[in-house]
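Q: I have 396 residues here and want to know how they pack in 3D. Can you give me a structure?
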Amino acid sequence: MPTVSIVKCDDYESEKVYHAIHKSLSLLNGVDKLVKPGMKVLLKLNLLSSSQPPERAVNTHPIVVRALVRIFQKDFGCDVFIGDSSGSVKNASTFNAFRITRITDIAEETGAKIVNFDKDEYVDVHNKDYEILDKFRIARTLRTVDFIVSVPKLKTHGLTQYTGAIKNMLGSIPGNGKKNVHLIAPKPTVFAKALVDIYHMVPPHLIIMDAIVGMEGNGPNAGQPKKVGLILASQDSVALDSAASSIIGFEPMAIPTIRFAHQRGLGIGELDTINVVGETIHNVSVPDFQKPSSGAQDFAGKYLPDFLLTMMFDSTCSTFSSVNHANCTRCYECVRNCPAGAMSKENGKVIVDKKKCIGCFCCDEVCDFHAIEMKRSLLGRTLLGMAKALGVEKVE
């Protein structure tokens, strides 16, 4: 039975965060036996945005990173590395993500080593037990360190509903490789299976989730910060995602990444078989947490068989991009980031070819100006309306 620890932490005051993480690790029992002095420990962050500051709750907060560096350097005597690949494919985007989140400053102050996965050497990964991705490339450092700590941010996601520990490992793939995943897996359910393939081949040894301030609504970039006041920890990504998604009002097994990973035996997603220590889920739940507009199908998670749930998920999540030109600053980040080539410049404006658009949210993830509007299919809008009318979902 996997263990998930839940510890309250009201804000990002440095000592509070340090003690909350320290307590969360002590509640797991056994982490000190896994981590040995002299080990190379990699903190795999969630640095989606290369331009959003920490208070926007898009990226892993720097105070959480600082506390983890302190713990693994001082308490465990390890050599600490900090790595990720940003969601944008723009040149120097990951470099800018480390800078804007002040991770660069932390590295300079502590001696921790930053690893820009986009500039790292890569290794080819072959998955014999794949469902969607039989091979892909990851940053070489993920194979040379002794211990991987995933440090995801608690957020909603317009395509996958929820993004946490499992999805965080998508950032193991450098640069354009993430765009290729979207091209291979354009449908929401297929994409979720691809994410589980990646997690299968790059599982972290430990997960520490930054849930002090999460993101609600149409995350992972265009939503709004929401105080949750928690640090979660586990050695099982699936179990942690199950607990975290439940806290913000989801039915965990209705989240495809959790369900598929559980079904493949890559972790435990059923709450009643997870040992939750510290705070209880009931005591820390956030009942008014806004879900993304793709969350209309979640109310059926307890009642529909898998094949109908899958159909409903794809129907409610299927989208195409639209540009709000009044908000567009013409930075063209969306054009560069579109894996399907559906976005282009025409007389200075961004134009979307709906026939090419695969609804992958890659444009939405990198737009900092709310200029991207993801439009739903007729069926998706109908199901969303039903969910709102029935009062079973609180969605934007």
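Q: Anything worth noting?
A: The CA atoms of residues 124 and 137 lie 5 Å apart. Residues 3-283 form a domain with the Rossmann fold fold (CATH 3.40.50.11440).
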